[in-house]
Design a protein that fits this description.
Blueprint lengths: L9 E5 L6 H8 L19 E4 L11 H11 L4 H14 L15 H13 L5 E5 L7 H18 L2 E5 L3 H7 L2 E5 L6 E6 L14 H15 L2
Length: about 220
């Protein structure tokens, strides 16, 4: 695979199960070692955050304490980490839930807490591995709009792994489709849709056109 990603891009990575999407993400995050080739980042060191399909919240910590955990591990004082956690909590619309525990939250709320925990460190690179796959469609639609808005406001780079063609087309400004084997890229396409995306776009023929191109690439053998 030969792939370059510009700073500030929202890249969706699609492909059949087992083609290496999650492995690619883990290698970029340095969570898995490569056995060949190179992954080069410029600059070499910068803040990276990872959001998994499961929220992985600590059940004995409140929403606020779960979000503040990365800052606690980084050595931030109590007042500063709580202030930062509350600020990002407001960005994901969960101010009223700061004292609740994970068992008291819906699936969509837990995922928003997981996203807030990733954003609290102000990452330049956000890696997301099918974060909305287990959610109902309406909840997923709302979170996709919210994520797209956060990306535009923060200017971070996002690499988003998904099985969903509609999700990739709606969220990303660029999408790559991987072949079943060998790391070959079937399609590398800049998504031709407006920068501002709301749920009204879901019935727009332009979105359908982009989805068709991605689907055709997915169906190639």
């Amino acid at each position: 695979m030969d792939l370059s990603i510009d700073a500030g891009e929202f890249l969706a990575v699609l492909g059949p199960s087992g083609c290496g999407k999650s492995t690619l993400l883990r290698m970029i995050a340095r969570l898995s070692a490569t056995n060949g080739g190179r992954i080069v980042t410029e600059p070499e060191q910068f803040q990276t955050a990872f959001v998994f399909q499961d929220a992985h919240l600590l059940p004995w910590r409140t929403t606020l304490d779960n979000i503040a955990l990365p800052l606690e591990l980084m050595g931030f004082g109590r007042a500063e980490r709580y202030a930062k956690a509350r600020a990002v909590l407001a960005q994901v619309g969960l101010e009223e839930a700061e004292a609740r525990y994970p068992a008291q939250l819906s699936g969509g709320m837990r995922m928003r807490v997981s996203l807030a925990r990733a954003l609290v460190t102000e990452p330049q690179l956000l890696l997301m591995d099918e974060p909305f796959a287990a959610l109902d469609e309406i909840t997923r639609f709302h979170l996709e709009v919210q994520l797209r808005d956060l990306w535009q406001r923060r200017g971070m780079t996002v690499i988003f792994v998904t099985h969903s063609i509609s999700e990739a087309a709606f969220l990303a400004n660029r999408a790559v489709v991987l072949a079943r084997r060998g790391g070959k890229i079937r399609l590398d396409r800049n998504i031709d849709l407006p920068a501002g995306r709301t749920n009204d776009l879901r019935s727009d023929p332009r979105l359908g056109h982009e989805m068709k191109l991605l689907m055709n690439a997915m169906e190639e053998e």
